[in-house]
Every structure is written in C-alpha cells, then in structure tokens.
Amino acid sequence: MNDSQVTADKKQQLAARMAQLDVRESDLRETFILGAGPGGQKINKTAVCVRLHHAPSGIAVKCGLTRHRELNRFLARRKLCERIEERRTDIISARQQAVEKIRRQKRRRSRRQRIRMLEDKRRHGAKKRERAAVVPDN
User: Fold this and answer.
1) Domain residue spans in the chain?
2) Global model pTM greater than 0.70
3) How is the beta sheet containing 28-33 ordered, strand by strand?
4) Which residue, 43, 51, 117, 135, has fewest beta-carbon neighbours within 10 Å?
C-alpha cells in the first residue's frame, strides 16, 4: 500500500462513516510517534506512526503499518471507527475472540483438571496396550 491508494472516494466514505458514528475531528487528539520494525534506519528516525485518542469514548488507536504518515492517519481513523462500532453494537469481533482464545489457552489448569487429564491419558494408554499385536509362542 502506498499513499496514492487513499483516493478521494475512500476519504469521503470514511468521513461519511465517521459522521454516521458521530465522531468529529475536533474530538480526536492525534499524535505522531517514531516508527519501529522493518524499514531500515529511515523508519526509526521519522514519526510516521499515528496515535489517535477519541476523548468522548476513551478509545485509543495506534497505527504504524506503513511508511507513509497520511496512509497511517487514514488507517488509524478507520480502525477507530471499527472499535467504536464494535462497542456500540456489542458485537464480539474476530479480534476480541482471538484474544480470548489465547487467554484461555495460556490459563493454568486447576488441580482437578490436571488429575482428570492424566487419568484419561492412562486409560487411553491402557486401551492402546490391549490392542497390541499378539505375539505367538513358538
């Protein structure tokens, strides 16, 4: 993606979406942060990463996907609209579902769960040993 991909039509669509969600530019506090990650020395010296804070909702969004400040500004506003929409419609987004899934995977099992899991493994191992091929006696 480069800066030329933010067409006037896309900007108008975003402005209409922001108006629909009642997000005004005056409510946004925009700051620029030094970029990080791949891109060489240039990305680490220029402030292309955009941080938007929407005061009424308290939502903050950070976007530094590209090396172009204008494109990052556009993408940050789009991400902010998505977050506000999620909050207003109470839809559990795919992003939130992924975060919850990882949280559940990292959570430690209780003692009872561990004991039960080990018992199931022993039972399954015993079942597999019973299926072993019979060796004939010579």
Assistant:
1) 3-91, 95-130
2) no
3) 28-33, 49-54, 59-63
4) 135
Q: Mention every residue, 6+ apart, whose C-beta is less than 8 A from residue 58.
A: none
pLDDT of residue 70: 92
**3-state secondary structure (DSSP) of residue 101:** helix
Q: What is the pLDDT of residue 136?
A: 82
**Pairwise CA distance, residues 83 & 52, whole Å:** 12
Structural contact between residues 44 and 33, judged by C-beta atoms closer than 8 angstroms = no
Coil/strand/helix, residue 1: coil
Q: Give Cα separations from 95 to 53, 75, 82 (angstroms).
A: 20, 16, 11
CATH 3.30.160.20 applies to domain 3-91: yes
Q: List the beta bridge partners of residue 49.
A: 33
Written as six digits, the tokens of 24 are: 């005004």
Low-confidence ranges of the chain (pLDDT < 70): 1-4, 39, 90-92
